[in-house]
Amino acid sequence: MRIDDAAAHSSGPADADSLLLLLHGRGADEHDLLPLAEALHLPDRVVALRGPVPWQGGRAWAERTADDGGGLGIQEAASAVLEWLDREAAAGRGAERIRLLGFSQGGAVALQLLRTAPARFSRTVVLSGFVAMPDGPADTELRRLRPAVFWGRGAIDPVIPASAIDVTRAWLERHATFDERVYPMLGHGVAEAELADVAAFLGG
After folding, report:
1. Please, which pLDDT band fits residue 72 given cuts at 50, 70 and 90?
2. Mean pLDDT across the stretch 145-150?
């Protein structure tokens, strides 16, 4: 599995010392989260990656998700993103600070990146997402580091099952310093109030 370098969409100052990496949900593509990133008004270089798996006219990070046994695919996707970051650094496009923002299945990849290489990421935003596997390569280190994670979701999300929410909250309680926000009347999407909360979190 490999990230398509040519499909990566970059915006913002190329010489910024911070990189915000966008990871879209299943069935979307690298363009999906760009309006959200623009609304955050951050000084970061923003890069939106394309999921490597074709899925129903869009792209995905894995063919299956946490509730149907797709955790291994999420780990493979996280490894592919780390390889992309290594290629960027080798090309002189590395960043001193890397922040992650993932939606739905992309949020699962963001958490798996944190669970694989926690020292590489300063802050992680998970929107309508979940933790995909019971164990991560660096979970023991995460329990020591307890990195900052923002976890936002809709109160009436019809996509992410309650069981995945319970598992994710329990994992975050053990491994992260996390800010959980639940937005009334929001389904599987992003609320305006949520964007304001994300901007405050990333600006902190």
Report:
1. confident
2. 97
* Residue 137 Cα to chain centre, angstroms: 17
Residue type for 186, please? L
Smallest CA-to-CA distance from 3 within 80, 99, 85, 90 is with 80
CA nearest to 17, candidates 86, 96, 94: 96
Q: Is 184 exposed, middle or buried (0-12, 13-18, 19+ CB in 10 A)?
A: exposed
DSSP-assigned beta bridge partners for residue 6 = none
Res 21: pLDDT: 98
Q: Give the pTM.
A: 0.94
- Closest by CA to 59, choosing from 109, 114, 121, is 109
- Alpha helices of 42-161 — where are they, by DSSP H? 71-90, 105-116, 139-145
User: Domain containing 43: what range?
Assistant: 5-203
- The DSSP secondary-structure symbol of 28 reads B
Using CA atoms, how far residue 49 sits from 85, 180, 182, 187, in Å, is 11, 25, 26, 24
Q: At what angle do helices 71-90 and 105-116 cross, to 10 degrees?
A: 70
CATH number for 86: 3.40.50.1820
CA distance 42 to 1: 31
DSSP letter (8 states) at residue 68: G
Number of domains in the chain: 1
Burial of 162 (0-12, 13-18, 19+ CB in 10 A): exposed
pLDDT given at position 194: 97
Does the pLDDT at position 67 exceed 50?
Answer: no
d(CA 19, CA 63): 27
